[in-house]
Specification:
The protein is α+β, with helices and mostly antiparallel strands. Helices cover 38% and strands 32% of the residues. It contains four helices and nine strands. Strands 1, 2, 3, 4, 5, 6, 7, 8 and 9 form a nine-stranded antiparallel sheet that branches. The two termini are 31 Å apart.
């Protein structure tokens, strides 16, 4: 009988904690259900551990008929970044390496190939050769001559710099479009376990309520255990 009386307070505390924990997860469920449209899949919104991937396809067209060598085709840039903790998501990471694929039709020939761009070192790796990543070398790589097309390649170079600096448009379920002079389309995704701002606010608030209740209960127990003077 004495053991049962000793265990009763402990069982009561366990039951209270279980109820508090259940209310925490139920609250997260309802908050998620009410705010599901605030963050589409792949946008990387919230606090969590995300991995990133993007694929950008650009359409190349001559800026004018006076170009020395008319250029028509497509260039695709693709990169990924490993898992990382993000306190407040929905932003682009710094990409250290990307793959570049191209299929170009010039006036008298077709050029296609692929290369790896080391953005951290600003180098191009092609056929076991390494050269600096620059507008001039990109023009040579694509067989481009004439200033109008050089300006298009300059925009492509600026895109690579943005990937290096973490300045790409943020991950989005719907993707992003790019205007002239370098029209294209980019898919940018983030995936991984996360908790969104409304859910995080609920967790912090409910933990605060739990901590306050525990503090009051501890203070009450301490005051009741103090012996009264005769």
């Amino acid at each position: 009988m004495f053991d049962v009386m000793q265990q009763a307070p402990m069982l009561k505390r366990i039951g209270s904690f279980a109820s508090w924990l259940a209310a925490l997860f139920v609250g997260i469920f309802f908050v998620s259900a009410l705010t599901w449209n605030m963050a589409m899949a792949g946008s990387g919104v919230g606090t969590g551990v995300f991995s990133y991937w993007f694929r950008a396809s650009f359409n190349l067209w001559p800026a004018s008929d006076s170009a020395d060598d008319l250029l028509v085709g497509s260039v695709t840039v693709e990169g990924d970044a490993g898992r990382r903790f993000t306190l407040w998501g929905h932003n682009s990471p710094r990409y250290h390496q990307v793959a570049i694929h191209w299929h170009l039709v010039l006036t008298q020939r077709t050029i296609e190939g692929q290369a790896v761009a080391d953005l951290a070192e600003m180098q191009l790796h092609l056929d076991h050769k390494i050269q600096s990543l620059s507008i001039e070398n990109l023009c040579t790589l694509f067989g481009v001559t004439g200033q109008p097309d050089n300006e298009i390649i300059a925009d492509l170079y600026a895109f690579l710099e943005s990937a290096r600096d973490g300045a790409l448009p943020p991950p989005s379920h719907h993707g992003h479009s790019f205007p002239d002079p370098l029209p294209g389309r980019m898919q940018h995704f983030a995936s991984g376990p996360s908790i969104r701002p409304p859910e995080l606010a609920w967790v912090v608030s409910w933990c605060g309520i739990g901590a306050l209740a525990l503090f009051k209960r501890t203070s009450k127990s301490a005051s009741s255990s103090v012996p009264r003077e005769a």
